[in-house]
Design a protein that fits this description.
With 448 residues, this protein is an alpha/beta fold. It has two domains: 85 residues, Urease, subunit C, domain 1, CATH 2.30.40.10; 311 residues, Alpha-Beta Barrel (TIM Barrel), CATH 3.20.20. The protein contains 14 helices and 19 strands. Strands 1, 2, 3, 4, 5, 14, 17, 18 and 19 form a nine-stranded mixed beta sheet that branches. An eight-stranded parallel beta sheet has the order 6-7-8-9-10-11-12-13. A hairpin with a 2-residue loop joins β18 and β19. The protein is globular. The two termini are 31 Å apart.
């Protein structure tokens, strides 16, 4: 069988803190050669002129909810993975709070089978912890599964792990990376009771960050970190939303050696509590979007490397669900298609360099989760590549939104940059709102 060969010429290649004009030769699924100038040696090489566009490693999104199985009226792996590759996300790690929940090996493998049939992007899934499934957790193969997800607040079904003895047992015994959602449930319930007594179901959305407060986040994050330090567990704290929490994290240790790492999501870097007036429950997330001061401190921690990763926490709901009154409107929103354009918009505003965007969205997720041969533009690595035109404005609207839920918190926003091409394992899978049915996606593996 002859390997498919593609030559990308004249690209501004962004990798490991550098940008240089060069060519990339792809043979089959892998990057064969990177050089300032490469010539096609045979006539059957597909030569592609990047015309000076920026070539990035494919984004690895370490936290998405694609809603399959059981919640497919909101989204599914097929629709959301297509939206992801249109947004330059070539690999995703999906969460266990589906229906049924991914808390047994059997249910985990069922999700892998769905993704093998329908996903446009490379995929992995997190295994879910509960108060009573330690035996199943210990069966998980760390080389083939991204991580263990624990909800220490804001869970669905029976996934709230709130038994201190169980928690310590899990932290002590698993060799998996433990990813946690940290919000203290007791604090949230007390805050909610106060506002519910005043407003009933129609609590004004502006009080969401008061209910899911800074203290609720900090109390839970600090406890998780304390437990990780006590047990030696490898801990990753999802979606920081407060400035106060950033003080809990370190920027003195190289990422590959860190035992405790942190993530921030697009919405906490973009929106503030001032946006509730316009966006209402459409920017209702858990943890809540908080103050401008919090946003500024999150940016500071991201840029000084206390925060390691930018992710989406893509969590779609239908428009009808989101339009409900406060107590009935679910938290979460769709983000995979617009995350990289949003960060590139921040680059245009001189908030962050392209090199730093690539570090936080491509390199660091690969290092942090020990993803094999992805997240970098390197010879011998999988050719997950994204071409970006920094000067091709477009406006988010109903006609170009690709999520199954058919809405976006960015509707009406004009981005200066667009993703023009996405390669998955060496195959062109997406080009300017057109998809190619190449079935190139693979299950992620981990170098552990």
């Amino acid at each position: 069988m002859t390997l498919k060969t593609t030559l990308i010429k004249n690209a501004n290649i962004v990798n490991e803190g550098n940008i240089f004009l060069g060519d990339i030769l792809i043979e089959g699924e892998y990057i064969k050669e990177i050089s300032k100038s490469i010539s096609a040696k045979t006539a059957d090489v597909h030569v592609f002129d990047a015309e000076g566009k920026y070539l990035l490693p494919g984004v690895i999104d370490d936290q998405v909810h694609f809603r399959e199985p059981g919640l497919t009226h909101k989204a599914n792996i097929k629709t959301e993975s297509k939206a992801a590759i249109a947004g330059g996300i070539t690999s995703f790690i999906e969460m266990p709070n589906t229906n049924p929940q991914t808390t047994t090996i059997e249910k985990l493998e069922e999700k892998f089978e769905i993704a093998a049939q329908t996903s446009s992007a490379n995929y992995s899934f997190m295994f879910g912890g509960t108060n009573d499934n330690l035996d199943e957790i210990l069966k998980v193969d760390a080389k083939n599964v991204a991580a263990l997800k624990l909800f220490l607040g804001s869970s669905t079904g029976n996934m709230l792990v709130d038994n201190p003895e169980v928690l310590e047992n899990i932290f002590s015994k698993t060799n998996l990376l433990i990813a946690v959602h940290c919000e203290d449930e007791g604090t949230i319930k007390a805050n909610f009771k106060k506002y519910f007594e005043t407003y009933g179901d129609a609590i004004p959305i502006k009080y969401h960050p008061e209910i899911r407060s800074e203290e609720a986040c900090y109390l839970s994050s600090s406890k998780a970190i304390e437990l990780a330090k006590k047990t030696g567990a490898r801990l990753h704290v999802f979606h920081l939303s407060t400035g106060k929490e950033t003080a809990l994290f370190d920027n003195k240790t190289p990422l590959k050696d860190k035992k405790i790492t942190a993530e921030v999501c697009i919405h906490h870097l973009w929106f503030t509590d001032k946006d509730y007036d316009e966006k209402g429950t459409f920017i209702k997330w858990n943890p809540a979007v908080k103050s401008k001061k919090d946003k500024d401190q999150l940016w500071e921690a991201l840029l000084d490397d206390r925060i390691d990763v930018i992710a989406t926490d893509h969590a779609p709901h239908t428009i009808e669900e989101k339009e409900n009154v406060y107590t009935k409107a679910p938290s979460g929103g769709p983000l995979v298609q617009h995350a990289l354009p949003a960060m590139l918009e921040m680059h245009h505003k001189n908030k962050i360099s392209i090199e730093k965007i690539v570090e936080k969205m491509c390199h660091n997720p690969a290092i942090l989760f020990q993803v094999e041969k992805r997240g970098f533009i390197k010879e011998g690595y999988f050719a997950d590549l994204v071409l970006v035109d920094l000067h091709h404005p477009w406006t988010v609207n109903k006609e170009n939104i690709l999520y199954k839920c058919a809405w976006s918190p960015f509707e009406g926003t004009t981005f200066k940059s667009r993703i023009t091409h996405t390669f998955i394992n060496g195959s062109l899978a997406y080009k300017n709102f057109k998809f190619y049915d190449v079935k190139a996606a693979r299950r992620l593996t981990f170098n552990r």
